[in-house]
What does this fold into?
Amino acid sequence: MNNLHGLVFAYRSSKDLRELTQHRNTCSIPFGGRYRLVDFALSSMVNAGITDIGLIVHSSYQSLLDHVGSGKDWDLSRKHGGLRILPPFGYASATASDYFGRMDSLAGIRSYLEDIRQDYVILMGGDLAANLPIKQIFEAHRKTKADITTVVTCQNVGEPRSCTYLSSDPDGRVTDVFVHPKSPMGCESLEVYILSKQLLLSLVDHCATHNIHSFSEGVILAMKDRLHIHTYEFEGYVGRFHTVGGYFEHSMDLLDPAVRASVFDPSLPIKTKDHSNPSTYYGPEAKTSNSLIADGCKIEGEVDHCIIFRGVTVEKGARLSHCVLMQGTHVGANATLQYAIADKNVHINPGRMLMGHESYPIAIAKDSKV
Amino acid sequence: MKKECVAMLLAGGQGSRLKALTRHVAKPAVPFGGKYRIIDFPLSNCVNSGIDTVGVLTQYRPLELNSYIGNGQPWDLDRSDGGVHILPPYLGENEQGSWYKGTANAIFQNINFIDQYDPDYVLILSGDHIYKMDYADMLAQHKRTGADLTIAVQEVSMEEATRMGIMNCDEEGRVYEFEEKPAKPKSNLASMGIYIFTWSKLRKYLIADEKDPDSSNDFGKNIIPTMLQKKESLHVYRFAGYWRDVGTIDSLWEANMDMLDVDSGVHLFDEDWPILARTPIQPPHCVGAEGKIIDSLVTGGCLVDGEVERSVLFHSVTVEPGASVRYSILMPGAVVKAGAKINYSIIAEGAVIESGAVVGAVPEKDGPLNIAVVASDIKVGKNATVAPAAMVTKNVKEGGKA
It folds into this structure.
């Protein structure tokens, strides 16, 4: 299926993610033991046969570039097409701290859009943890002959204040749009859209000349009667990341086998940067249950209900429950951690005790020493 | 383009002593240490030593090895100049082609490949050893001593020496005698099967050896003794680190168990000398509510709900609730169903041990290990028993014995 082009919005930083976005934007937040959020968008696209992907970035994208590199790990390092990183270029908003919205960012890469080889384009945020069946969504788009197909979930997964909700008629055509309501109304839009390249270009021009920045408001809400906008309901698992508490909840969701079966469907593998870690070693006194543990760790203490990333060390006597430990975290002997998120390379000294609560997990910033 | 040193990796061996494990793959492709295959060790050593041109000589069941090595990307050997090359035996015009007759013949048949790079030195490696070695250091010694051949050696016990190729040398490391499996060894310096030759010399000896109809075209049996006889300069390179031949079931099992002492042996966790491998994409492994893992290595994609003790689990292994796995090696995709008991065994790729089955047993103190082996994709039926030291290459029926 080479007639679909991928565009990933990899610039927005949600402000409520505190320590997690201090050194990176939302798309490169580590998730699920070995992934970055952007892996889900890239892998879903590659698994659908998409060969050309543009990654739209604006600021704080060093960690993202570090992660995606040439795109080799997703087979996107190609002579023709493959992965293209798209920073702002000679455009009014280039000097602002971030794009004002998706239409704004698309106007910033107008010349790239013109050169797209494919007839259709899929737009997707790089901060969605979902294994989307893009092949089926694209087929549905062509079958319904809709102008725009938008993917929704009827389980409420995001913060209503940051989400858009859609209601549709029995045929699936969008009838009403609710932007950032107080509480969920109808099905939640994942803000994933398929449309033709021609329509996209005319929408970008229309919005640029009318000073419209947002896709949800400027296109979906404003044009729902003029354009045929169709919904596609995705029934699998979706993780959206608007707050630290939400991040923690979605991480713990992965301990549920049904969630893992949806996210880590073996026929649609989520690919990520390869690190060549050895297997994880469990010591003679290790005690582990209900946990997801990546390669290259040394576990000698007790671990329960935890998500542990690559290269983590848990020394003897340490007790961890309900924690997310990112790459390279070191937990010293006899330390106790509960409801905590340790970012990359955090060092917890022996005997320390850190307790968050289910409703407010504590987050420890990257490279901190406790 | 000219290269100073080209490595030639002999990977054609059948590995018949690994029996059930090499039914479908060549010995160098046998899984090792949770994430690797045996060949990853010499290949990674090459890359870490700065050698970027490697010929891999294949012959026996090469398909899996070929696709494993592919374009060499996992080892950064996908180069526009040099890189990794698979070298199977081939036919030329008006030539009587043949399989590789011996280790020296395998190199002889690829003289043209080596000549393309016009190297000063050629490093000869074999694909059945587990070790980390800096070949650059060995090459530096080779150049310093001006030797025609440098042979890596390791000190072994006098008892082991009777089973190995022994180098007798003077104080400066010059070899004056080579004895294959001597009954009464004069020294305990065993050859590790790692050679650096000055290419112009080796080329000459390979051509001469090929003309000798009585030669078995082998480095140990022919080339080295002939070079000694002709008074060429042969030196030993002493290596004191971890090095294991994994040519037998017992030695393969023992070397895997050595990896559980993560801070000794080959130091798998040492990031300065990483062992690289082609690994499939797998999510992190999952330990269930009843899972219990001690003193073991566990890899991505595993699901552990049973008990695992002093074992090595490769990727995508399943251990169901109530099952126990002790002192064993479970290769990729192996499944151990509820209540099954595995002791002192090697379960090969994709094999399924049905519930209640018993495989292997704890050996008697100081007795032989009696490792049981279940070959790849074999099914051991419900409540079946696999005896210690058994080699299972056919499905075992429910309640059956093997």
